[in-house]
Amino acid sequence: MEFIDKKFVSINNLMVKLRKKKCSSKNLLILFPHCIQHSACKQNVKNDLNECKRCGKCKIKDLIEFSEEYGVHISLATGGRIALQKVKSAEIHGVVAIACEKELRTGLMAAAPKTIFAVPNLRPHGYCKDTDVYMDEVKEAIEKFLK
Which CATH architecture has domain 2-146? Predict the structure, then answer.
């Protein structure tokens, strides 16, 4: 099934690139999973991203900085239903979603026809713990929506 998830995400991203959908920064959302937060971190960023001390042990600091630099919305997804609510908001026209391929596939299917560029996370410690993401892929996705 993992192979299918990867292919689905890949095809989605190709379609998003070909459609060349643009939106303003105020209508773009960066959505990322809670597992990007370093597991030893004591900060409660699930409720408030302002709690992040920006220590650099995880990519939350970088994602917040992208949000500030580009003036886009940012949200931590604590679960599928909450993530879907945020994605389906009328003010959101484009989404850069970070997660594992399985979560991305199910989210893409549930949120259709919303335009979502999916960025698979890296799982050096397995699923759902201390995940990572290539920030250059996130930046490229943001810029494709905004240019």
Answer: 3-Layer(aba) Sandwich (3.40)
